[in-house]
Design goal:
Blueprint: E1 8-12, E2 19-23, H1 31-39, E3 47-51, H2 57-62, E4 70-75, H3 78-91, E5 96-100, E6 114-119, H4 135-141, H5 148-158, E7 159-170, H6 174-183, E8 186-195, E9 204-211, E10 218-219, E11 223-224, H7 234-242
Parallel strand pairs: 3-4, 3-6, 4-5, 6-7, 8-10, 8-11
Antiparallel strand pairs: 1-2, 7-9, 8-9
């Protein structure tokens, strides 16, 4: 039996029959996490760390992508981390561990340890938009505890040489992201722009970098979320139906 509290719900991920415990009035995972989990390069036996894991949705999805993964989720909020741990118990997954920690200050045992660092970070700087009165929502949306540079600096320390770092972010911040990646000697290797509709400008971007790689960037075909009638495109539906990757 897994404890599910009065203000929580158990939601289906559809993928692999997985379920996740979420707070009814708090932050709830979005499609962004699903897209990132399918975009990142992940191979059998990889050691993976998810920075700002929230309720652990990305680690859960990654278990459907490759076998024998060793995954660590890092979450600064104790209550949210405990919710993620209960989701793991609900799904009887033992190859994922959740730690409550500040991603900027992880111990020596984590440095240079991971094949893949992955993150769906807060998109907004402190001077963008209204900060939610809910701490849980505020920390997930705004760079209160971790700036973009903090994230990239931390990722660089955690990745093995030739390891990968994958993230999703707002397309409007792409130039800033690449500038920081260059500062920390992380080479962008794959980019995919995400468009809500075919006729609309991109609002999100998926990026994967390799530590210590030579220059050479692949820009994938655009990813379109919705058909003209507002339904999901076939590619989006395929992620749920067959675990397809998001790297065309």
């Amino acid at each position: 039996m897994v404890d599910v509290r009065e203000n929580e719900s158990i939601d289906e991920l559809i993928l692999g029959g997985l379920k996740i415990i979420q707070k009814t009035g708090g932050f709830r995972f979005s499609l962004d996490a699903v897209l990132l989990a399918h975009f990142a390069t992940v191979k059998k036996g990889y050691k993976v760390i998810d920075l700002g894991t929230g309720t652990g949705v990305i680690p859960l999805i990654l278990t459907t992508r490759a076998l024998e993964l060793n995954i660590t989720g890092v979450e600064i909020q104790e209550e949210v981390a405990q919710r993620a741990k209960r989701s793991l118990a609900l799904n009887q997954l033992k190859n994922i561990k959740i730690i409550t920690a500040d991603l900027r200050n992880l111990g020596e045992e984590h440095l240079g340890h991971y094949d893949l660092v992955i993150s769906n970070p807060p998109y907004l700087t402190l001077n963008q938009g209204k900060i939610s009165p809910s701490e849980e929502i505020a920390l997930s949306r705004h760079e209160i505890k971790c700036s973009l540079e903090d994230l990239i600096r931390s990722a660089q320390k955690l990745i093995k040489n030739q390891g990968r770092f994958a993230l999703i972010h707002r397309a409007e911040r792409l130039a800033e992201i690449i500038a920081y990646l260059k500062v920390y000697k992380l080479e962008p290797k794959r980019i995919r722009l995400i468009h809500p509709y075919l006729a609309e400008a991109a609002n999100l971007v998926l990026i994967e970098v390799i530590k210590g790689a030579k220059p050479g960037l692949t820009v994938h075909t655009p990813l379109v979320i919705y058909n003209g009638d507002g339904t999901y495109t076939k590619e989006i539906l395929d992620y749920y139906d067959g675990g397809e990757t998001c790297g065309n």
